[in-house]
Every structure is written in structure tokens, then in C-alpha cells.
């Protein structure tokens, strides 16, 4: 019964309210940082010809979708006034990461390298914003 | 020992290595490495030793008593406790099978670019046809051998030049850095659960009966369990080391099934990527068949139906319908679009809760002279069996609270 109850709780626990606390925002910042960093690695390897076109497109599309969910969640969220500007900056950054991830796999080698740099910078920026929540 | 016997043992060991890693190992070892680098390698050793201890017991029980584990569970524990074990194991089997099918479909998508929802039924169809057509021994071997492509992770781990002194320190439990204590404990529980999943022992013991093991196979049982699982454990080390070297320094938290393949891809390029994806497909696909069969074995053995892959499907119709039904239900679960990584995390954690129900009857039966005669557990097997049972009890109590408190290891 405990197992079944917990399964129901976990499956029903998806979604969430619009008011996000610092801890939830820190989690979003960490997820965005991870997605941007993975995108940077993928773009770098794509530019170096290490990966297949299909893998690059599919994996970057999964990452872009995840970034877009973060963007959507952050753009609809509110938080306490003290960290509201950081929330907006993070939402904007999520939009940039989503757009960059969407371009991986459809760009020239030089553009892939530029995307890798952009995404690496976005990962660092996300970490920095996250520190405001931590 | 003649050459034929040596070859049979070698083939069994190879398939055990290739078949060791399933989606739970893939997810938990990669996430643990990306969060705590090498600091949790010791948990893999404990988990692998645990599955060796209990698989050896199961194989011995099957070889001596000529009866698989679940048959004896009901007889030894009675209808009520047996039914509770059956329900818990079937829920976990179904969740695991669904997660494995999701994993197969995702890797097929990463190879082909075709839509995920189209590849789910295609993957299930291929697995069902394979399970229907191939003889029992070849299901294990075909998927196990092709799962050996995962050895690319082991070579990638070496090529990433980890500091071997740090790797060695990871085999000693101690203080940790990189995450909170609760997250660390969550991964301890998850890694043990991934290494000691119940379906493995159900499948192993029923497989021993299917293969007609007898007293002469007790040596084969010991060698296969010890060497096969121990070498399989090296794949878990490799997954953790690759994640610790490549993902942790970049703050990548692997949340998607395609992410682990980035390791071999980064080191070896396209060949590494293809080997990793093919290895995952066969390791995880083989595990999907094993979970569906384990579920059908449990049902058939509990209710006393005729069972076995070697039986004609019409002769063991309820057994055949059971594994087909588990595949069908798992297909429905995956088609809802629920994330296979999350499903894997839940299936591993819930399997931990069911572990005592699985392992206690094995320990009891392996100690029972009525069934085992002169082949009852020796002192070492009993010491390890009891030690692991205590470990299992502790992690079974801690599993769900840790999952809820840490939000599935997210902190």
C-alpha cells in the first residue's frame, strides 16, 4: 500500500504552482546550467565531427524542449520581491539557451563552435544567477 | 574439464557481463558519477557482492531442489505473505519493463531519427518476436553478447585518464563532497537497488530450471554468478568514472537517456557513439525480456501453472499470455509519454522496498535441509546472506523517505 500510495503521489506531483521559492528557483537554475553545459559539449563535438547528425539533432531537441519548459515555468512564475529581478534574468537566459539548443545540428562548424561558446557562457551565467537563490 | 565445458562457462560469463547493466544501472551510476565523481564506487562493490551471494543461492536451490524461487516462496511463507511478495514484485517488474522499453525506444530514436512514439511499439514488437522465436539460452546470449558493446564505456573510462589514486579512494566508504548527505544516501540506496533488482534473481533461478541444472551444475552456478556479475560490475564502475570525468567538471546532471552516450562519443567519435547506443539497446532490451519473463515466472509458479520457455506456447498458455500481457501493459505505460528516466528512478527505489520480500525466502530455503540436503548454506554463505538481509532491510526502510526528501536525488 505504501508503494502504491507513493507511486500515486509521485505521478500526481508533476506541475506546480506559479509562486516559486528560492529553493525551487535554485533547482531551475541548476537544471538550466546542466542543459546549457550539455548543449555546449554537444555543439563542440558536432563541430569536431565526432557525432552523427541524427544523434546531434535528437539530443539537442530533447535539451531544447527541457529548456523551453524551464522558460515557460519561469516566465509564468512570481517570487518574493528581493529575488524577482533574478527570476526575470533567469527566464530570459532560459529563452536564449532554448534558442541556441534549437540551432545545434543545423549550423556550420564555425557556427557550432560559436554556439558552444554561447552555451558555455549561459551555463556560467545560470550558475551565477543560481547563487542569488542559494 | 573438457574444452566444451570451458566454452560453455565462458559463453555464460560473457552473456552475464553483457546482460549485467540495465536501465537502472545506467541511470544511477551515471548520475552518481556526475554528482559525486568516484566517491560511490564502493557501493557498487557492495551491491555486486550482494547479487552474487543471492544469485548463487538461487541457482543452488534450483539445481538441488529442481524448483525455482517463487515456487518455494509460496510453499515456505504461506499464501498471504506469498501473495504480498507476488503483488510487490509484479508492480516493480511492470515499472522496470516499461522503463526498459522506453530506454530501447529512446536509443532507437537517437540512431534513426524516427519519432519516439512510433519506435515504442516497434521496439516492443521486436522484443516480443525475439522472445517468442529464440530458445531460452539464445535470448540470454544474443542480448548479452551484443550488450558487450557497452565495454566501450570501460575503454572510454581509461582513455579519459582519471586520477587512479582518486578512483582507488572511491572504493573506501568515507566522508563525501559534492552534494548533501541525504543526496549521497539516496544514491547509496539507488545504486544498491539497481545492482540487486529482484527480477534478476527470479529470472536467474527460473533460467536454471529451464536449463535443467542439476547437482553437476553447482560449479557452473558458482562460476557464472561470481565471475559474470563481478566482471559485469566493472561496467558500472566505467559508467561512474566516465560521468565523473566528463559530466561533473562541466556541471552536467544527466537527466536524459541519451546523455551517457556522450562519454564514448567524446572519446572515440562516431564509432564510440554507435557502440554505446547499440550496447544500451541490447542490454536494456534484454532486461525488458527478462522482466516480462520474471513476471510471468512468478505468476505461473505462484498459481501452479505450467510454465517455461521450452514448453510450447499452447501447452503453457497462461505463462505465455502472462509475459505477453506484461509487455502490453508496459507498452501502455510508456505510451503515456512518462519520462523513462523518472520511471527508472521510481522502479529502482520501489524495488528496494520489495527486496526483503524477495530475499528472505531465498535465505530460508537455502538453509532448509528438507529442500537442500547436504547443499544447505555454509557458514560464509549464511554470514553474507544475513549481512545482506540486514542491509536490505535498512535500505528498504530508507528508500522512499530519501526519494521524497531529496526530490529523486535533486537535492
Description:
The complex is a heterodimer of chains A (134) and B (411). Chain A has 134 residues and is mainly alpha-helical. Helices cover 79% and strands 0% of the residues of chain A. Chain A has five helices and no strands. Chain A is elongated. Chain B is an all-alpha fold.
List keywords for this structure.
A: 134 residues; mainly alpha; 5 helices; elongated; B: 411 residues
Distance between the termini of chain A: 37 Å
Summed over residues and divided by their number, the pLDDT of chain B gives a mean of: 91
- Structural class call of chain A reads mainly alpha
Strand content of chain A: under 5%
What is the compact description of this entry?
The complex is a heterodimer of chains A (about 130) and B (about 400). With about 130 residues, chain A is mostly helical. Chain A is built from 5 helices and no strands.
Helix and strand topology:
The complex is a heterodimer of chains A (134) and B (411).
Chain A: H1 2-12, H2 22-47, H3 53-76, H4 84-103, H5 109-133
Helix pairs in contact in A: 2-3, 2-4, 2-5, 3-4, 4-5
Chain B: H1 3-18, H2 23-36, H3 41-65, H4 69-112, H5 116-133, H6 136-147, H7 151-159, H8 164-169, H9 181-195, H10 198-210, H11 218-246, H12 262-268, H13 270-303, H14 317-335, H15 340-366, H16 369-372, H17 379-405
